[in-house]
Write a structure and sequence with these properties.
Oligomer: single chain
Domain Aldehyde dehydrogenase: 22-252
Shape: globular
Radius of gyration: 20 Å
CATH topology: Aldehyde Dehydrogenase, Chain A, domain 1
Helix content: 40-55%
GO molecular function, one term: oxidoreductase activity
Mean pLDDT: 92
Protein name: Aldehyde dehydrogenase
CATH superfamily: Aldehyde Dehydrogenase, Chain A, domain 1
Number of domains: 1
Keywords: Oxidoreductase
Distance between the termini: 87 Å
CATH class: Alpha Beta
Strand content: 15-25%
Structural class: alpha/beta
Number of helices: 10
Order of helices and strands: EEHHHHHEEEHEHEHEHEHE
Number of strands: 10
Organism: Agromyces bauzanensis
Largest sheet: 5 strands, parallel
């Protein structure tokens, strides 16, 4: 007896939950050959605002956790990704129209990249911060701290690797994230959100919006409660206008990157979303 198919429903990921868009809108996601794959939620301005509210509420807990704890949580995500490796390979094969070997390589690189960033969680402060030499009886120490809420337009030409490459470094430093997934390849981003929901990542630390980056990004760029804007995947948008809007609220902005090495793993992607706090303390004169 044949069974009915149980197609997967892809929703947004906001505040640890999976809501549909408040607008009720969806759009068709198709394979490289044009075959229907799924309906994805088309996020609205209200969804973007809800995601920022959730991200803001998560900043103190995630940013206040120890670096060692954040590293453990991020490594747990890599463990779960490894356990669902076959699912991600199948999604990438269908969506991008690549061979199984190419899809496998993208998943493997995504997992390895996540592990790489997890390993930096309790180490990058020793590189990005330092004890400063001063002429006087003082200690002067600079320490990197998270910026806060980071809105990210992830690379648009990648199902999984681009998302991981853009989101992971912002999390390492203790920021919370609102990520606008690839419009063409959104399914792996939502599947990754399911991994986040079943790991130890606190709700609101990562929020995933699917739909049109051209529609969503301006609201995030102008939102006063977003502290930084990563436009790594916004090369095809009017990103200069986004940068101008971000300037009105003094956001830190990373401009778009192009090519196969866009969002390549680098310590600079972690420190890009940190603020340096410098502390002075008197030395004992005894």
């Amino acid at each position: 007896m044949s069974r009915l198919a149980v197609p997967k429903t892809y929703k947004l990921y906001i505040g640890g939950a999976f809501p549909r868009s408040e607008s009720g809108r969806t759009y068709e996601v198709v394979s490289a050959s044009g075959a229907f794959l799924a309906n994805a939620a088309k996020a609205s301005r209200k969804d973007a605002r809800d995601a920022v509210v959730a991200a803001r509420a998560a900043v103190s807990g995630w940013g206040g956790a120890t670096a060692y704890n954040r590293g453990q949580v991020l490594y747990r995500i890599a463990e779960l990704l490894e356990g669902r490796r076959a699912q991600f390979i199948a999604e990438i094969e269908e969506a991008e129209g690549v061979t199984r070997a190419v899809a496998s390589a993208q998943v493997d690189e995504s997992i390895d990249r996540w592990v790489w960033y997890a390993g930096w969680a309790d180490k990058f402060a020793q590189v990005a911060g330092n004890a400063n030499p001063v002429a006087g009886p003082y200690f002067n120490i600079s320490v990197p701290e998270p910026t806060g809420v980071v809105a990210i337009v992830v690379p648009q030409d990648s199902s999984l690797l681009g998302f991981v490459s853009a989101v992971a470094p912002a999390l390492v430093a203790g920021n919370s994230v609102v990520a606008v997934a690839s419009e063409r390849f959104p399914l792996s981003a939502i599947s990754l959100a399911e991994v986040l929901a079943t790991s130890d990542v606190p709700k609101g630390v990562v929020n995933v919006l699917t739909g049109s980056p051209a529609e969503i990004a301006p609201w995030l760029a102008s939102h006063a409660d977003v502290n930084a804007l990563d436009l790594v995947g916004a090369g095809d948008l009017d990103w200069i206008s986004l940068e101008i809007e971000a300037a009105d609220t003094l956001k830190r902005v990373l401009r778009p990157e192009q090519g196969p090495d866009a969002a390549a793993p680098a310590l600079g992607r972690i420190s890009a979303f940190t603020e340096t706090k410098t502390v002075w303390h008197t030395k004992s004169l005894r």
